[in-house]
Amino acid sequence: MGKEYNWHALPALVLAEKEILVEDVAGKKICITRYNGQLYAFAYKCPHAGAPMNEGYVDAQGQVICPLHKYKFNIRNGYNSSGEGYCLKTYPVEEREGILHVGFDKSWMSL
């Protein structure tokens, strides 16, 4: 059985390729970026030292780079690709009738 999500509409976004924006969604800060024309959403803070990920950047391989220690995370799944063993929380993004939505795991929303 797959994960179940609570979906939340995002405001209209004007987002350049590899730009990282911060949005407040359901009281939670998240980062949103565009890579190869697709939108991705991930945690606002680095899982290692809590640095704001919007102050980092997205590289040519689709990794978001933490601004503090330069740890690298795959924007598709959050896996740490620089070997430190951390995982960046990612969130699914869907477009419905021209409106973007981000999904939060229902188990997280009930905490």
TrEMBL record:
Highest taxon in the source lineage: Bacteria
The keyword Lyase belongs to this UniProt entry's keyword annotation: no
Start and end residues of each Rieske domain: 7-102
Keywords annotated in UniProt: 2Fe-2S, Dioxygenase, Iron, Iron-sulfur, Metal-binding, Oxidoreductase
Cited Pfam families: Rieske (PF00355)
GO molecular-function terms, A-Z: 2 iron, 2 sulfur cluster binding; dioxygenase activity; metal ion binding
Family membership noted in the UniProt record: Belongs to the bacterial ring-hydroxylating dioxygenase ferredoxin component family.
The name this protein goes by in its record: 3-phenylpropionate/trans-cinnamate dioxygenase ferredoxin subunit
Species of origin: Chitinophaga skermanii
Lineage: Bacteria, Pseudomonadati, Bacteroidota, Chitinophagia, Chitinophagales
